[in-house]
Amino acid sequence: MFANYDKKIKRHELSLMGGLNIEESLYEQERMERDGVISADYPSISQATGVPVALDNYSDYAVLGVFGRANYSFSGKYLLGLTGRYDASSRFPEGHRSGLFPSVSAGWVLTREKFLSRLPVWMNEIKLRASYGAVGNQAIPEYAFYPAMDAVYADWLVGGAQVTTLTPPGLVSSNFTWATVQTLDFGIDLGLFKNRLTASVDWYQRDTKDMLYEGVQLPAILGTGAPLQNVAALQTKGFEVELSWRDKIGALGYRVGVNLFDSRGRIKSIKNEAGLLSQYYVDQELGEIWGFTTDRLYTVDDFVEGSLSDNLTGGQLKEGIPRREGQLPNPGDILFMDYDGNGIVNAGNNTLSDPGDRRVIGNSTPRYRYNVNAGFNFKGFDLSFVINGVVKAQQWRANQLTFPNLYNFGALYSDQLNYWMPGNETAFHARIYDQSAGNQSFNQSVQTRYLQNGAFLRMKNVTLAYSLPDALIRKIALERVQTFISIENAFTLDRLPSGLDPEINRSGDQGFGYPFLRLYSIGFNVSF
Amino acid sequence: MKIVKIYCTLVMLIGICSCSKDFLNKLPKDKLIPETAFVDYNNFKTYGWSLYEQFGGYGGAIPNAMQSDLISDNMNETRPGNMSPYAYQTKIIPASGNNTVTQVVAQWNFAYIRKGNIMLDHIETSKLAEPDKLHWRAVGYFFRALRYYDLIASFGDVPWVGRTLSDTAAILFQPRTPRDEVARHVLDDLLYAEQHIKADGDGANTINKNVVRALISRFGLFEGTWRKYHSLSGAATYLEAAKLASEKLMASFPALIPVYDDVFNSEDLSGKPGIILFKQYAPNLITHSNPRFVGSTSWYYDLTKDAVESYLCTDGNRSPQVPFMQAMPICLLNSGTGTGDCISP
After folding, report:
1. Are the C-beta atoms of B77 and B301 separated by less than 8 Å?
2. Chain A residues lying within 8 Å of B6, measured CB to CB
3. Is residue B47 part of a domain?
4. Residue A234 shares a structural domain with residue A345
5. What is the per-residue pLDDT across B317-339, written as a single tens digit (0 to 9) for each?
6. β-strands A294-297, A334-336: how paired?
7. Mean pLDDT of B211-236
8. Which range of residues forms the domain containing residue A484?
9. Is the CB of residue A157 less than 8 Å away from at least one CB of chain B?
10. What is the pTM of this model?
């Protein structure tokens, strides 16, 4: 429910808006199932033979809020906008339910200024923008402040049947509230060369504050996780550039649009006093990949002469050659960089102050993402395409397509045959073992050598169309006749092992998920 | 007109604000909270079943009975590369612990202790009758003692957590409680449990007086001998408790199960002589994989010659005094079918 009010006095324009927001959501799920339907043509619960199963699931939430907006403009040159929301949500405990989220924006259209009237004629529009806004985030599960107990089956049979029991309630805090997302944005909009070129550039900084996270670090004696509190903060900085150009050369018309964007996120505050690398820590960049640095493969010369068995195992390392903690390396295994020089390569305490021999070796966040769409038309022919891609990204992928003989039932593909063997000491892949046992797990640990390059360029769509000339089809009383050929996901250029897709990163030993379909279509459009 | 609008808006606002408190109060409909989960006897019984998880039964993919033998000279794993991390000095000390079940080395995890304490802390505020309160306290004490027995065996000194902790509890940052004190708590709790638990528990195959006595017997023997052989005080207290409990147990269970192998490889031990409490297995519900290990060449695991030779044979000899293959049928092959007269090691 909202109301508007507009007023115009000479060159002043004011518009006001105010409203109320009442939202209630109730999710209900009731499910009954029973296997062994007697007749597939007449399915019914009572005419089935299996064990009946009934389940239900409810969740509800409500939001109540007021909001308002005021826009002011002075002769279309100076623009000012104020908005505010005051919301209360049932997802937060009583007394902590409401939050105020204001935002302000300002714009200045330079090209309408008299003192800039001597600007070159090709500058059609220049507009500067700045805004600062806060948005509330209540995307947490419902009832998070109730210590809920779930019904589960116990690991115990009584008289041959499994008994139902309850999970212990977790520790909850009763004073958490909204997380806020504050965005500061500076932008410029351009329209140049008779608006053939339009461009907009934005730089922004987004601060997500008061995110819910374990509020304190507590010893294991507690017996459960620490309660969630509004303690974490994340800062994202990024930019976005959009360019588009549209023109005509004789009978050839063309248009090109490019859009490039990038952002980096950094943890600004979190409770992780020990600096554990297994959790988020302060000043961590999102997407960081911690791993070992690969030095080379062990060679026979790294072992004491005569200590190796006939099949080159069980040797004794020479003085000063490092090995992984818990590993008895053989020739062909990966030798990692021993940064701390203690002869043992490990993850130290797995903390920031003692990361052992691990370092940040990459970042999985896709950087400099872009989209290009372009089109050409010439005498009824129209060719257009859409490209998207990523300039820089690293990915750690451990699956059957990146490692030969990944596990004891794993495959060995033809493009993975360059693994270490006596006589192939310079192989790319390390030594593989019978049943993938032994040192293979060490050789497959996160490291620089097998870090994948996630950069790619994908031709999302190419379409070629031909429309019959208007003069011709009018005679047979038709509006438009067009034929076209189009290919979706025509091709992808990337550096990954064949079979993997840069945008589908699924865990699991196969490494691939449901792929993007390549779709060819040929069509014929007739409009009357 | 404008005035009417403003009035309307105001009326709406007031209306909404006055009902907003109830409007925003949403309670979970399909979950219980402690206030609703611990009221009557059946509530406690329901929650109590979750404490039985501490009985690991035969264990998971590798039976508990084999776990520790695999890293000793009694058994050997022949899978390539999976040699004993202790023998080859490749064992890495774990950084954190799981909530392991009994018979496996306990790790630094107190989730189970908290689970038991939550039940204990809600007994007083419940609507249980007075004798039932005693019974459930006894059950809670028993399970907590069961976990502490494992913790003491692994760590010696462990923090004694006698009630559910909040995130601000002082004990979180205090040093461990001395073993002496923890062991005394465990024994006291068990003796309380023996006295107050219902003689028949909550039906067949549940915690009852005899189960408590069995734990007193085990724990008392363990703690008593530890003290005796480390020349510590108090050994007699624990040994005496063990002896008393064992005597009562022996009176109640005069016969032992005739086929020793059944104890280690059965689905259902109900009604078998000498069985105090057992973990029942049933297809599709709770299963075990022990039959996989019955044959002498099963999976990757096998006994070593050393282990075979340490078995006692029916004629009273240790196997080194008889030819190797003669010892085998008696003690190993027949044990698989359960028909032989195998003798306990």
Report:
1. yes
2. none
3. yes
4. no
5. 665 554 544 444 444 433 333 33
6. antiparallel
7. 94
8. 367-396+453-527
9. yes
10. 0.75
